[in-house]
Amino acid sequence: MTSPDRPDAANCSSCEAVCCRLMVVLQPEDAIPDHLTTYTPEGLRVMKRGEDGWCVALNSVRMNCGIYETRPNVCRRFVMNGPYCRAIREDYSRSGAAAHALHESNT
Ligand code: SF4
Ligand code: SF4
Fold first, then answer.
1. How far, CA to CA in Å, does 57 sit from each of 80, 94, 104?
2. CB-ligand 1 contact for 101 (6 Å cutoff)
3. Measured between alpha carbons, how far is 106 from 73 in angstroms, rounded to an integer?
4. Is the pLDDT of residue 5 over 90?
5. Is the CB of 18 under 6 A from ligand 1?
6. Which of 4, 49, 66, 88 measures 20 to 30 Å from 33, CA to CA?
């Protein structure tokens, strides 16, 4: 198992915020301003993403969350260097894509 102390461990401070390129599915209890959100064709309320592929709430200078204190619950539960973090980073480094959705079932 990869330990956070190992040099190959994923670390947010040296990551291109790959998880912030995922589709973030919001829950009713998430208090996110409407201008940062949109709806999928299926009717799910999600964080809006910019043309660059990142969540519009990302602070693109610091590459960290611009609404950290009020970020969605699913973002709070995303585990740095957890299996899903490592999987999307691997996808991203291979293809530049992070085509998964971030929702309740995979945090
Ligand atoms: S949780 Fe993982 S994918 Fe997200 S910024 Fe941190 S290291 Fe990168
Ligand atoms: S709300 Fe914040 S933590 Fe969640 S995807 Fe957007 S920028 Fe990343």
1. 19, 25, 20
2. no
3. 12
4. no
5. yes
6. 88
Give pTM, 2 decimals.
0.86
In three-state secondary structure terms, 65 is: strand
State whether the beta carbon of 80 lies less than 6 angstroms from ligand 1. yes
pLDDT value for 76:
97
**Is residue 102 a contact partner of residue 25, using CB atoms and an 8 Å limit?**
yes
Q: What is the pLDDT of residues 51-85, one digit of tens each?
A: 999 999 999 899 999 999 999 999 999 999 999 99
Give the Cβ contact number of residue 30 at 10 Å. Answer: 18
48 lines ligand 1 (CB under 6 A): no
